[in-house]
Amino acid sequence: MEHKNQQPSPQISICLLTRNQPDDVKELLERLLQEKCSEIELLVRDDSDGAETKTIFESYKKHLSFPTRYWKGVKEGKG
Questions:
Q1: How far is CA 28 from the centre of its chain?
Q2: Structure pTM?
């Protein structure tokens, strides 16, 4: 049941799992800037060693026309 004040649920979820690939993340975000569909969402799980991917994501997300979520992964084990 959908309430009047709620946004509709996204029809498409883009799930990005990444580790130490900031250039690839930037390329994807550049392409998504062109996307005008409001029925999508972007979910990013970042297992990178540093903060570069998060910095790139944060700089792009305010320009995207759809919801986004970011999670920083927790490094487990001896890797």
A1: 10
A2: 0.78
